[in-house]
Amino acid sequence: MKENRKEVLYLVQIALYAAIFIVLDFISNMIPFLKMPQGGSIGLSVIVLLLASYRLGWKGGLTVVGISLVLMMISGPPFSQNMLDYFLEYVVAFGVYGLAVLLPTFNVKGIPIHTGIYGTNFIRFLIHWAAGVWFWETTWSASFAYNAPYMLATTIACAIMTPILLQRLKKI
Fold this sequence. Notes:
single chain, about 170 residues, mainly alpha, two-stranded antiparallel sheet, globular
């Protein structure tokens, strides 16, 4: 009986994270200054993917990412040149957030430093940077100039909000 209850709670948490992700992604895409013209935005929604990874483990995190990607496809067409570009810039780039929990967390003077936040955002940036050159046919410097600002802003938002929300969720 207890085992079934835990499984149901786990599934409800996955559904809740995915639902919050799609709402935040929709909001990010509706606010013009958060959105880039050829795809990419300041990713408030990826905070939810990080939370899912830290709270549910990497398997739960990847499950939330998978469901979220399906919901993203329903909410609007992706900005991609072909299936390989879609796989790289969406499946792989967002999939790394599900693995954030695998990177260590350090305490510096009692403040947790979640390296998963920085590592996953950096990997996602590298993927978008390379894809800008390979698929969007820009120069390395142009791709860097396009992707760096919104990925830096996303990293800052994640670095501020994720630890605060993790601390609050610990109490629940």
